[in-house]
Amino acid sequence: MHTLAPQGEPRGTVLYLHGGGWVHEAAPTHWRWVQRLAAEAQVRVVMPAYPLVQEGGTGATVVPRVADLAAELSADSGEPVILMGDSAGGSIALSVSLTLAQQERPAALTALISPALDLRFSNPEIDARQPEDPWLVKKGQLELSERWIGEHGEDPLLNPFLGDLTGIGPLLVFSGTRDILHPDTRLFMQRATDDGADVEYHEEPGHLHVYPLLPTPEGRRARRRMVDAVRQATSSTAPTL
């Protein structure tokens, strides 16, 4: 587990789940982002080195452990944690958020960057979107997700697209349209809105997978919004300076 602390007293805690298809460790892009987040939002950022599939990691083992970690961090601080993740890490973050909501201790905010939401990859719009996505390939993503969740594709806590959003707390979601994960993100956000969830959705036409982590004007705008949202979510517990 890696912890990044700001200068001065932290306003709160962000539990960040990095992406990488459940097979890659955190990349330099992730480190740059969490360092900036800790400094600019004045928060402690905890980024667990969760077991990857080649190390025996699965959704059934990792999600409960991360949910327990979130509960421990919340108990230590006396305040709900903020959950954040990108791509495969976004899937874990949402699964953990759903778990905490079931336990009636929701996250203060769940921020998702181009998340993998429906791990069955059965949406027919994915095939139509594939030629526009230079990064992700459906076949490879499906093979990885099957290694991650095994026979649990219909489990609403491990395949978070199916989850019950009751009591989940605020959601902040980013998606680019040149991403095969985008069709499921749009469906999920529509359902969340219909269910009355507190949602803020940012969709960037023509942009790629995890665009908020990329060095583009739109990426910088998304990062500023996440910093502001984290500061807002922690404002009630901010220390008096």
Break the fold down into its secondary structure elements and pairings.
Blueprint: E1 2-4, E2 13-17, H1 28-41, E3 44-47, H2 59-77, E4 82-86, H3 88-102, E5 109-113, H4 124-129, H5 138-149, E6 171-178, H6 182-194, E7 199-208, H7 217-233
Parallel strand pairs: 2-3, 2-4, 4-5, 5-6, 6-7
Antiparallel strand pairs: 1-3
Helix pairs in contact: 1-7, 2-3
Q: What do these coordinates show?
A:
By secondary structure, this protein is α/β, with parallel strands linked by helices. Helix content is 40%, strand content 17%. The chain has a single domain, classed as Rossmann fold. Strand 6, helix 6 and strand 7 (199-208) form a beta-alpha-beta unit. The radius of gyration is 16 Å and the shape is globular. The relative contact order is 0.16. Residues 237-241 have low confidence and may be disordered.
User: Mean of residue pLDDT?
Assistant: 94
Kindly report how far apart the N and C termini lie. Answer: 29 Å
Q: Unreliable stretches, pLDDT < 50, 5 or more residues?
A: 237-241
Number of helices: 7
- Give the ordered list of helices and strands: EEHEHEHEHHEHEH
Judging by the overall fold, what is the CATH architecture? 3-Layer(aba) Sandwich
Q: In what range is the share of β-strand residues?
A: 15-25%
The CATH class is Alpha Beta
CATH fold assignment: Rossmann fold
Strand order in the sheet with the most strands: 1-3-2-4-5-6-7
Name of the CATH homologous superfamily: Alpha/Beta hydrolase fold, catalytic domain
Number of domains: 1
Quaternary form:
single chain
User: Whole-number radius of gyration?
Assistant: 16 Å
Number of strands: 7
- The helix content, as a percent range, equals 25-40%
